[in-house]
Amino acid sequence: MGDTMNADIDANVLTKLPDGVKVLSISPSGASAWVQTVRIDTQLVDGTSKTYFKKGALGDRGRRMMEGTFASEQMLYSFAPKNVPKPLAWGTYKSKPDSHFYICDFHDMTDDLPDIQKFCAVVAKIHLDSMGGSPDGKYGFHITTHLAYVDNDNSWSDTWENWYTKALKRMLGEEERSHGPDEDLKVLTDAMFEKV
Question: How far is the C-alpha of 90 from the C-alpha of 99, rounded, in Å?
Answer without folding.
Answer: 11
